[in-house]
Structures
1.
Amino acid sequence: MKQLYKKYVGVLAISIGLSSCVDYMDTTDFQVEKPATIAEQEVLNAMGTLGSYLDTIANPNFKLGGAIDMNQYSSRGLMYRLINSNFSEVTAGYGMKHGAIVLANGNMNFDRVNSTIEAASAAGTSIYGHTLVWHANQNAAYLNGLLAPLVVESPPFKNELDLSALMSGSMEGWQSKGEVKHMENAGMGEGTSGVILSAGSGTDPESVQLTTPPIPVVPGKPYEVIVYVKSDTPGQGGITFEGLADNEPSIDWMNTGTDSTSFGTGISWQEIRFTVDDVVGDSFQMHFNFGYEPNVNYSIDISNLYVYDPAGEPAINNLVVNGDFENGNGWGGWGNGSSRGATPDGMGFGGSGKAFFVTNPSITGGFWEVQTSYEFAEPLKNGEEYKLSFWVRGDAEGIIRPELQSPNYSSNGFGQVGVTKEWKQVTLSTVATADDRIRFVISYGEFAGTVYLDNVVLSSANLSGGSTTLVYKTDQEKRAIVEGEFERWIAGMLTTTKDYIKAWDVVNEPMDDANPFELKTGVGNSNLAADIFYWQDYLGKDYAVKAIELAEQYGNPDDLLFINDYNLEYSLDKCQGIIDYVNYIESKGVTVDGIGTQMHINIDSDKDKIVSMFKMLAATGKLVKVSELDVRVNTTTPTAEVLELQREMYKYVAEMYVQHVPAAQRYGITVWGVTDSPDNANWLPGEKQGLWDINLNRKPAYAGFAEGLEGM
């Protein structure tokens, strides 16, 4: 094969030489040599495919890979033929990552993966799995949504269960068995109370029990019951009754589709919701039984413990019509060149729906100099207390001031409200002290920037119901949620692909650039891109250990598992950092089969460092994979000289890989920017880093890379 290649190189040299030495001839009989560019291209076109320059007998396990766009590849067009004729393995640029597979609701769609597997199988081309665990290209909106605070809206109806004693810290009127106590700050929301029930060593369900006072009802009416419960370890609870036709019913407690006499509990608050429709008298009682499992501590939230008639009269009347701004209308306002209105969909609280915004260009001399105003249908009642709640965030931090105002500008203020960059709920109250409090006003003069408001509710404090509780998840809950998603994702991908894919980037880009001996982290960074989610911030340094354990559990026993990173040839400290991390991973009892080095380099990259990197990686004894090779030319209009430098660098990388990585450790080389076309799996459109140009003509880089491969 070497002789074959040298033949083409020789032809190229002769062609270039002849084209530069054309003598003058009689115009009646002459021939013109082909221009050098055409002659050069013909030489490149006459070369064999890349795979033909490999000694497959001496390197039977070496994988020559190319990056693909999965849609383009599975359509089986021109790029499909080009890839399969030159490469023995393909790697998806994006299509096998979390963000490409996991839908907004958490479901996974593997249709494109399966189509790609079918296309590769038809060609006899293997697929390299890229990537199981990464911080980028994630469906971060879905993952962060699971970790976001739980927003619990109580029913806007009268609560038939008298909670007054519990709300004041007393257990009067409530009965209990076993260790049952009222406890402050044990409820779902910040500063809310709960009832703690602690199971002992037995397993009698009724040995730990809380019993409600009699709950008055109208005979024959159905009533809905809502309970929020959690436990410090997995547990079990149940509810029995007095006053029903069936006091020990089987119920679908959590809308799972299955009736049972008990329900499971865990470290996160969960809603128990069911209907009681067989009361035999004018009241009934509930027994909360938590003695099923020994040594488990349970919490029942007090504020959202509800029994109500869903067909009854609403117990709340929001005086602010369209307080959720979903009709697209905002409020009027004035001052300091400010602007206001309803946002587009997706900018409301929780990332859905609309919100109201006010943009104030600068802080003013008085807080009242920038205001919005909402007019009530009629004046508020003099002497009555009014509750105000809303969600608020800003693009900066500052202060706003809500108040109830009269036409003469006298007012009852709710106080200052601190605005942060994160959504938060504000709950305030004030008493109307005049007969003509006719409008709701918010002042923004102390805030420079944009304030967003959503779900504004103003109601009489005499009305119950309709409250909102914001439930923040604990670090323990967040870790458990992330662990569950981590396993669900890896299990889903591997069980789908294991019959065809036998090698994986299990963890991609773990090491930090600024601190190359430490893992990357998103802690302290409030400006993360929308697709960024750092698994390691929740699972810790052993996240790669867990990933390998799961890959071994759900994949094939002999799958090859790699840790992959970039800039290892640029920063030798980072190269050492990933080697150290691999050693740490293996100290935990799992095996890393290989290390991938991406090598997104350019024509000026430090060749000495490239050699040092290969030596360092080879010294680990692990498989070494050049996982994402491309060579940038640093210009969008490269000259022939620049393209020659690109050719030399592709050749150099292949030669140094062969020279410094023993044959038994050579997993392979994958070319990332196969062509200059942005339609291929090209992450750097316009950078001219490929082996083929935008028209799929071979470039000098093709020849250089082929020559480097011949060294095997």
2.
Amino acid sequence: MMLVSFGSFAQEAPKEEKATEHYNENKFRQMYQEFSTPNEYRSASGAPGPAYYQQRADYKMDIRLDDANHHLYGYETITYLNQSPDVLEYLWVQLDQNMRAKHSKSPLIETSRINPYATAEGFAGEFLKEPFDGGFNIKKVLDSKGNPLKYTINQTMMRVEMPEALEPGKDFEFDIEWDYNINDHVDGRGRSGYEQTPDGNRSYVIAQFYPRMAVYNDVEGWQNSQFWGRDEFSLPFGSFEVNITVPSDHWLDGTGKLTNRKDVYTKEEMNRYERAMKSYDKPVIIRTQAEAEKLAQGSAETTTTTKTWKLEADFVRDFGWTSSRRYIADAMAVKVGKSDVMAVSIYPPEGNPLWEQWSTYAVAQTLKSYSRMTFDYPYHKAISVHAKNQGMEYPMICWNYGRPEPDGSYSDRVKYGMISVIIHEVGHNYFPMIVNSDERQWTWMDEGLNTFVQYVAEQDFGESYPAALKGDTNLDAYPSRRGPAAAIVPYMGGDQRYIAPIMSKGLNTYQFGSNAYAKPATGLNILRETIMGRDLFDYAFRTYSERWMFKHPTPEDFFRTMEDASAVDLDWFWRGWFYSTQYTDMAIGDVERYYVSNEINKEMKELAEARNIPLDRLQGLVYMVKEGSEDYKPEMKGKDPKEDAVALKEYLMDNFTPEERAMMKNPKYFYQITVEKPGGLVMPIILEYTYADGTTEMVTHPAEIWRLNDKQVTLSKGTSKEIVKVVIDPNLETADIDVTNNTWPKEATVDKFEEMKN
């Protein structure tokens, strides 16, 4: 018996391609060209190097809210510690509110066109209203002795000149006095500002409200990119002592520990808070809706007394706070590692009943899921604040949307939208508030990584709180919008001419929601579920998180750590998914069936003749014939497969030892499967075989199977059962944009338009 030459199975490069083209398409070359060179600051393993450093900025602030005039006043002292090896000639300070200055250039970088169907309000806002002036009014910049310092403001950045250069290991203290008009964040979708309510009151969510130090590091030097409004912030860690004076009937909370709680809480509120600290299964309402509604009868004009709330935080990169006389508050304790963390929700009456039912549970689940995937949450609280149309994050506090109808009713869409945004924004405590990546450069490093863990937390939420799934849709699992591979297909299959890679500067990212959030999150989910497996992925992801908590990582630090901690070479994946706009598309090209034969085929005879090999020397080969080939005989298909088994058994008896024969399978059917790759992305080939007896088998070929031929590969399979169906990626794990070519025998496709018409 002889075997037809398996040379046809070899994975050869397409002959029509030139060598240079084949090289350029090599998806498996190492990323030495794309990655920065490791150095003493950042090691080749992805860990901080022996000379890694980062700067520190400590703040002391006195803030006053003028509720009647929606104006904010501040005086701050900044102590900046130079821990770099460099001598600094000047300091850069961020003035993010200047994006809202009357003559800001931010609107001028956006294209616009005349809307022929504009509403009166929209037309007035576009052409008739005077621009809102919300930029900083910098009154003073002084050194520690009260002497004026020279400074220069360039849009949203301020350069402060020091009397002398700042040497390594030295610090510099200076003061800034400032104020600004607070914007209506509902009008213009600001990240910070107030919401005007029908009863004449306002709810404030305040952030980016103070001049903040820019980052100086080994990668960028000064990160002094302008803030145009979309790509977010890059900030050093430090401590905060902040005193905030607001009307006495306001409820306030923010970043850090409230150090004078007994001075600003009523006695009953203190009792409720202490009960909440011991409640692990249900939130305790600290300020009730009835109390909030009663206080809402007051106003900025009628409340003339004030309270000062004192907050302190250490090793945070930023500070945010919220204040209103209309707030309800509840809280519960969450066990994270060996510590208790307070999960807190703050919301106006408009948020109920939805917020009282689900907000704090969402905060609690986020802390549990993210801590499992990264590191134990290191702060003492996490706050979710309800603000209309908002979704924004700061250390220990975030604002979130999701509002019922005025009658209190809400749809599943609103409910899941609220829970998801709370998980996402609370999750930002981990990325980038603790794992402090550069959002100005790489938005995906916080939004994408966070969206991935959000997906994990959402699925956990559905398991922990099944009652949440039993709404109008009565779901079996949480309806996550981003994360599953199939959800990214419409984007990946779109017109790639107008799409940039994930590895784009935040401001320049095309298709922002897909490229900064969904695509990186989906890529990580594919890595976890399909390429690496959960154990390897989770260990590597946690290693990255622990290595870079309270530090400033770069994309290379993430990519290198994921490989370093898993022993999985992923350069092909980073290059394709993060550095290109290619998509996944694999197809079953052909499935051929072979039969064992005792006859030498034409191809082998010609080969023997050309090489002067006597035919009797070919008798030791196992020979197979492809169904439908020149050597195929119709009776082969109809004969009993047992005959092949007997023939093989005789061959094995002649050529192998009893020990070797005992280890061998005894296949009856032989197939060659051709898999084509019209798409550019490399992915594992996941094949599901269905047999004539109804059983199935799943086989995953690693992505490296494409290493020698990026267009087409062939696979051979011997089995004791007849194969009746082959499907690529049956569970939609690889974001394949065209599944109509994934099945053999090819299945008839249904025209959805015709189906709808009929």
3.
Amino acid sequence: MVAVLGAVVVIAGGTGATAESGWWVATATPSPESEVNATGEPERGTDADGNVTGYIDAHTHMFMDLGMGGNAVCGSTWSEKGIADALKDCDRHGVSILENLTNSAAGRGILDKHDTVGWPTFKDWPTYSSFTHQQMYYKWVERAWRGGQRVMVNDMVSNPGLCPILGIVAGPNKYSCDDMDTVRRQIKATYDLQNYVDKQYGGAGKGWYRVVKTPEQARKVVADGKLAVVLGVEVSEPFGCKQVLGAPQCTKADIDKGLDELKGKGVSSMFLCHKFDNALCGVRYDESTAGLLVNVGQFLTTGTWWNPTTCKEGQVADNTVIGGVLPSEIAAVPGLPAVLPVYPKGPHCNPRGLTELGEYALRGMIKRNMIVEMDHMSAKAAGRALDILEAEAYPGAVSSHDWMAEPYMERLYALGGFASQYGHTATEFAAQWKETKPLRDKYGVAYGYGTDMNGFGGTAAPPTDAAKISYPFTGRDGTVFERQVTGERTWDYNAEGVPHYGLVPDWIESLRVLEGSEIVDDLAAGSESYLRTWGATADFEPGANLASGAIASASSTERNLLKDLKPGNAIDGKTSTRWASRWGQDDAWLQVEFLSARQVGKVTIEWEQAHARQYRVQTSLDGKRWRDVAIVGRGDGGLDTVRLDRPVSARFVRVQGVERATKYGYSIKELGVFS
């Protein structure tokens, strides 16, 4: 850091097309530097109701250049030596197999070359369709902040399957492929960037880039008009929790140690799985060529290919995947066959859901008041995760970039969760905003975007004629924007879409052109909406399970010489034990008795395979006169959460069977009763 401070020059007007001064302008900026091309004081404070205002990007990867061994993304987010070092030429990148395979818009062959020159000309990069060039240089992020963005979730990211492939085709790797090593490296870089920006603004705490650990810190940062940076984790093998030939490679102790470490470093949100089936859960598959590459990565790191089945009627589907012949350059990687498996007809469902270790990790996140990222879980895993979150009444659930199966969206909002939409082209984003708005209005939730910038999804393409913008334009808070300039390169949204993060304000202006102020106002309420979810998550305290310590009894118990299936097993706090009724009884029941009458508002039932198709939840004050407080007519097993229309006073709570779903009796792993 000393080296850069010796090189900075004091520029009274800051860096940009016009000279201005104020708390939002750096007093000492490296020279040369990228321009910001924004004029005007960023909005500060809260509204009359105490709500903060500002856009939220709930899914970014600022430091992907430090992930996947250091070869996935060319160019750095910042450098102590300045922009010429951070965005220098990609010398080893002339023939980039990964770039050519994934950048379909460029129209290159797999071994074609592209111009590797970065600063100051940037002839061929970054572009909206490229996954392999830096898009989040910190001055570009500064322009997005000046455009009204107030919350950014920075997900630490890597992939241990693609990492060794890149080490061969683009290597040698600079860094370890271990996911947790990468997470630590990227977290450190996030804090280092905060310090770097602070020194340009006069000292600790004065810069616009603020890493936050709590929703209270975030509210203060947003109220001050600065950018609150939330730390998240999106890796394929958190805590070493990979699976090899289906066998988990981590323990519950590893999970606890890892969660404690992340919490201590300020991480607030996390994905349980990403791209690969791991020891915690199955994934929602990638489609097309990207899916083919990820499937190869899964095979290399786990010894297993994806194993999709054709979805049965009523199942929530995952994405449909492809098999086939690998490109020869990829097939040359040692250990790979030339052909992928042949898959059944779609739609495809991943049969792998949330594992026992995955449920332990999920409950560990709840225990530590962390936000659970629902995206990338298989539909089966996400459904089970939502079952658990609903049973706990835990609000900390987020879908940050359109990777959760859409049928689950209302369940997420009902919990108090938050969702943001992938940063598609303006026309597509506006259409999806309009389509999904009635559901958000139902739950009083605002909107956000998840650009996945520096991820492997691509950014917004050039707009249609109807979505083109005029320069200069004025943002929602009065800031005026000219075309963004970096070195000798001037970027025009109308021609280039969103090639880097600095054009996010231009993209928002394009949304305004399409849909008027309503969509912009909805997005501007996004930070408040996200912080409400985070605040409720941080404040969450689990309710006491009234069934714990109660007296359990049942109409009957299955006789089994090998297993104890008594009623008390259903309230012992362990899903490894269970109560089972005698076979063939549709009217069998299980009940709990409290020492005194208690208010009952919710009942949870963790069924074993032998579940009820129809059942009643009943309460009683004396154990003789029973009252139906809930009737379930389409039970499908798993974890049921039954909420009463209104709390009732009861000394006895009973699950009364009406119709069995199997030829056996009824079997309950755990019964929970909550006020």
4.
Amino acid sequence: MTVVSPAGRGLSAALAFALTLAAAGCGGSAEGAGSAATTPRPGGTLKIAVSEDPVCLDPPQANFSSAVNVMRQLFDTLTDQDPRTGEIKPWLATSWEVDPEATTFTFHLREGVTFSDGAPVNAAAVKANLDEIVRLGAKSLFASTYLSGYKGTTVVDEHTAKVEFDAPNAQFLQATATTSLGLSSPASLAKPPADRCRAPIGSGAFVLDRLQTNHSVTVKRRAGYAWPSSLAAHQGEAYLDAVEFRIVPEQGVRTGVLTSGQVHAITDVQPVTERQFRQGRFEVLSRHNPGLPYALYPNTFRPLLGDEAVRKAVSKGIDRKQVVDVVLTSTYRPATSILTSSTPGYADFGADLAYDPEGATALLEKAGWQPGPDGIRVKDGRRLSLNVYFTTGFNPNTTILELIAQQLRKIGVELQLRPVDAAGFGEAQEKKQIDFRWGNSTRADPDILRTVFSTKFSAAAYLPATDLDKRLDRQISTLDQAGRNEVVKEIQKTVLDRGYAIPVFELAQVVGVSKAVRGLTLDPSVRLRLHDAWLAS
């Protein structure tokens, strides 16, 4: 067996990477909001405005960032991940062993830990949680892919759980640090999945107090909590009495409630507001998202985008630097691969993504697309007109896509914008109307590529089964980081060469924070950590 110590040797070292934290302006720092503050003061309610309703607060079922921000406070995980080094650190598991093939993971659990309903956090609870994720299947969008090839969990003894897979699964240890694998009480797991969304029961530093759809979610401090992550700044109960997450979709309103003192912090700060905050009386806490950058994901089953030349021409026709310079801020970066630069295994293919309208024109003309009377290219009587479906959760999306549409028009491609909500996207996908979807995906592990591009897992992969599926599986078959990185590099190159995705820019999570807030930080997946947070006034 390969022993993985709490210090991060063995597999955790193989997963180590550098996550960039760009915390600047008015006192922001790598330590979090108000890191230079004095002695923490218990008490008070921290009020945070978030951009969307969380919808579901069950770890394996939740899909929205706002849900993860709440769940990170309610649910503990087997391990944690150091945001500076990427090392896997102890939490509910004090230590673990991984066999050389990465098929068996044995976790030794901390004693004396309980869920908020009083049930023990033991090996049987770990087994119940993992088994339930497999039963959920497609209802568990991310967690189910983390358990690919799951054979089962053996309860070795009260505090030892052995998790086995039928094939190597090198990404699993990092997955145990994600909120998607947060542990729920067995009593909670016995409820119907829909009910768990509204009544979560975890072992975290806070418990759910009140949930009002499209209005707010309030969590309160859990008395007696004594098992935070080994990365926590203190080992006792949370300092705050409560945290109120207010649902405020409009960016202008979120800014207003912060500047007027109605809340202490806001998430999803947009570029225009970021500039204002960096010059004002608020702190700006930011971190670049690991995972996939914002990109156009083409539906290769649609008639026009089934042509690789069209997909590659669209990529060459986008000026990524102009998008960042005109619409965003220096916090954001032009994409240089289908993985962001803060993701382990990232390889720089910036030269392949250079703005090249002449090259785009040559590709289209060779493929038979000729300029039409209005400048949009035509072939066999069809205009080169493509739609893009997107949500407006990230406020600049419309402006960004309008700019991209202007850029593409110069090469004779029409891009029609289709803003929708989640229901509208689902309806369009069911009717097979989507040419491009626009978005990003966050995870501090390159296996996010498999989650999104594998035709085995993703209904929105929009790809035929190809050799890419085998490589996506192969990248989790080894604990050798160098070997894994080579496969991940090949995958990135293939995705870009074939136009399976057209990356545009790297997202950053930007949080505006009042100077009254101390100790608020972001985890490696850019979610709020509030166990150490407190209010100075």
